[in-house]
Amino acid sequence: MVLIDLDHFKQVNDEHGHLVGDAVLAKVGARLTACLRDSDKVGRYGGEELLLLLPGMSQQSQHRLRAIHEALSLAPYEVGTARPLQVTCSVGVSWFRVGDTAASLLARADEALYRAKRSGRNRIEPEEPESSVA
Asked: Would you say the pTM of this structure is higher than 0.85?
């Protein structure tokens, strides 16, 4: 499970208006769609948060996450403003564990996302490794 937060997106709406913010979201959606497989699912989770389900993605296939992050963050967004807008994103990732519920998977992705934001934003943070019981 992947949670994506568009960094400082409220500032885009405040400075340029909600129509521009909506245009950025539409372009984010188009960029995401170009990166995803037919089996992947994406949805808007909150104002500036997106939730991705990437079935079969292992911890060893993080190159896909980097490709998604780069697709959203590297190129500016042409949305009818005087200058293209640079928008970055923070990403939190969790992987399915035996016994997981949707809530536990989401909680770990959310925790990873907030670590990414606290660590300076515009980065990918995986969930913490499963703690071993001694």
From this structure: yes
